[in-house]
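Notes to self after the call with IL:
- keep both proteins in one doc
- input above output, always
- annotate only the second one for now

Protein 1:
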Amino acid sequence: MITNHPAQAMPRGVTNAYLFQIFNASSWSFILGTPMLLFLKSLDASAAVLGAAVAMTPLFAALQIPAAGFVEKAGYKTFVVRGWTSRSIFILGIAIVAFLPAGVSANLRIVLTLLMMACFAAARGISMCGLMPWMTQIIPETLRGAFIARDTMCMYLALTFTMLLSSWYVGVFSSVRAFGFLFCLSYLSAMASVVFLKRIPDIPAARTRGGAARPPWKDMILFPPFFSYVLFSVVFNFFVSALGVAWVPF
């Protein structure tokens, strides 16, 4: 006799994770995407500067490794919320740079923008290491695939909307200061994402694992499925990393 088990439902509060992803993707797409590159190009930034701007995100993503040792001590939710709030401040700084008077030299604006982007990427890289472990503790194993699929769909829907919006806006308003309004929108989206991030359920402190044991890095890296994934990621990103910026100088 076959027993039909009722379908397992998503935990309460997970909708906030989807809303967080929508506003989060809307926010970083302005700062890490085409609008930022066009803003730098409007300041007559060189190809090297554009390349540096694109490289900051993967470069500072490596900060997840040393930061991982502090996540469980602080708590997943506390760690991620503080990181996301901190990085949002630097988005506002970029918007302020875009609104600086015309008398401010373009080189100074470029330097200030790159400095803000570096701080943004660093805060983002550090705080990201706590997000997926947090979601893993909340979402049951049998529902994680469905959660990732919906989460990814929310992200790409938001990216599509912001791409269309920014394309239309930059086509209509082409001044340097016009980018400031896009960055302000990015800041507002970032703060909205923090609001929904705070509404995601926390996990009991007892479920976090403490310990000072050194992670078995060699065994982790050489674990066949993980090694294959790392190899694929390295090769894939090696060939596509420049596609987002190669067209801008032209």
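Protein 2 (the one to annotate):
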Amino acid sequence: MAFLGHNLLVPNRQQSKVVVMATSTLETDGRPNRGGRPRDPSRDGVIRAAILRLLAEVGYNALTMDAVAAEAGVGKATIYRRWRTKSDLVVDTIAEMNREETPTPDTGALDEDLRVLLRSLVAAINGPTGAASHSLLSTLPHQPALAEAFRQGPLAQWRTALATVWEQAEARGEVGPGTAHSAVAQAASGLVVQRWLLTGEALDDEYVESVLQTVVLPLARAAART
């Protein structure tokens, strides 16, 4: 028994080799390393862009890992080193959507902050992320992980950015307390999203200006007087 205990507590050379081999199969983030060349982070953006294009073209159900590899111009091993399943791949891509497209303007004036933010939202909707998002809408009710990624990713980013703009306006005294979380604040993005999803009419800077000048800013001024 003493001999057995000694072997467990003080590994010999052969045991040390086993320990080294076992620990070397783990990446720094704790996920198993399948061997081969190390992951190249510079390809992540290229792959995610390919995923967005394919989601817009064929939708979630028809998307395959092989198609993503072909669209991105990388080997299948490159895809599988990053994601084990199609669900993992799309969830991760959704979580990263709009991260670089969502500004946090602070120009010193509510109207200009909203103008910058809503124009950015329109640009995102009219771009690859908007097309991919539209194709996923019918899938989300049947894929809880995707729906949660959508809520915690792009939706949360835009909600936070809009709330920040209104809170800054409250701090400057441009609008009354509580406006940031009122229907007035929600009207700005609500009208843009409604036009995108329901009417199919053009979304552009001219429409943003119309929303601001005829609806949002008049409501904000009226709320400030009450």
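Annotation: Residues 144-172 form the longest helix (29 residues). Confidence is low (pLDDT under 50) at residues 1-37.
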